[in-house]
Write a structure and sequence with these properties.
Helix content is about 35%, strand content about 15%. It is of the alpha/beta class. The chain has one domain: 3-Layer(aba) Sandwich (Rossmann fold), CATH 3.40.50.720. α4 links the parallel β4 and β5. α9 runs antiparallel to α10. It is globular, with a radius of gyration of 20 Å. The structure holds NADP nicotinamide-adenine-dinucleotide phosphate. This is (+)-lariciresinol reductase. Its EC number is 1.23.1.1, 1.23.1.2.
Length: about 325
Amino acid sequence: MGEQQMGKSKVLVVGGTGYLGKRIVMASLANGHPTYVLHRREIGVDIEKVQMLLSFKDQGARLLEGSFSDHRSLVDAVSQVDVVVCTISGVHIRSHQILLQLKLVEAIKQAGNIKRFLPSEFGTDPARMGHALEPGRVTFDDKMVVRKAIEEANIPFTYVSANCFAGYFVGGLCQPGHIVPSRESVCLHGDGNVKGIYVDEDDIASYTVKMVDDPRTLNKTVYIRPPENILSQREVVEAWEDLIGKQLAKTSVSEEEFLSKLKGLEYAEQVGLGHYYHVCYEGCLTNFEIGGEGTEEATRLYPEVTYTRVKDYLKRYV
Ligand SMILES: NC(=O)c1ccc[n+]([C@@H]2O[C@H](COP(=O)([O-])OP(=O)(O)OC[C@H]3O[C@@H](n4cnc5c(N)ncnc54)[C@H](OP(=O)(O)O)[C@@H]3O)[C@@H](O)[C@H]2O)c1
């Protein structure tokens, strides 16, 4: 683990026991940042989460107790650090967890000392999703509500658009409801030629931590777009077939079939599949160029990071 270094911002991770959050905590420690993790009282007797927090402490992190329902505790926590990274859950059920961050924004505004806030984004850029399908658009809409509050409070920010988490998308050969690749068959989205972008979650954490003290990412949206991981579903499947030395049987679902099937599903499934629709049929991650005002791309900013290629990511499943 990296030694804590002078001049490195103190980083508070909120949601540090989560799927992405734990990786951000580890990357922050490895980069020498004095690292703080919010220990929410609501964790209660969740032994796995408590053990994880204790292991962070063992590795040099400081635990700060607090709760979204206790404004004072949030102000106290953010007052002790320079940077806040939030990795609270995205919306998959009707509970709008993302909007809890409005309480964090209030606390950051009151504390007045935060040099950078990275809200829980880490997916498709919500600013590009004004046309998104109901009901899945709730994820983008809620993230935009949080952005508006951040900007109205003049809080310095970085929005990280991390594209597809590899564990969800590559593991399942881009099929919703699958996180382990089949050795027999795969169902393609249409012709399977629409390009997506896949990023190892540990790489997302490495890039994110590099952004926190970087003036080039101040008040910017930073896309993580590793050039060799811009691949169609067919290309992901081919990488897997090369690894296992076997061709998979292929079926296909047309865009019309996918959309009509979506309508009859439970709310939570409709939200998840709506996101797949935009990525896999519409190509929402790759149908624009990066380079406009207020945007940066992480692999260009940090060429020293060796990111995991999709074909290497898939080796773990062989
Ligand atoms: N691009 C992609 O493919 C992709 C995939 C998944 C997620 N994401 C995005 O990545 C971000 C992080 O997602 P994740 O999957 O890592 O999250 P997660 O593991 O589901 O949850 C992270 C943390 O959220 C906190 N949390 C959950 N419910 C809460 C509540 N009611 N009140 C307060 N805190 C609560 C918990 O914090 P405690 O530790 O305090 O309990 C939990 O550890 C989200 O913005 C999500 O939309 C992107």
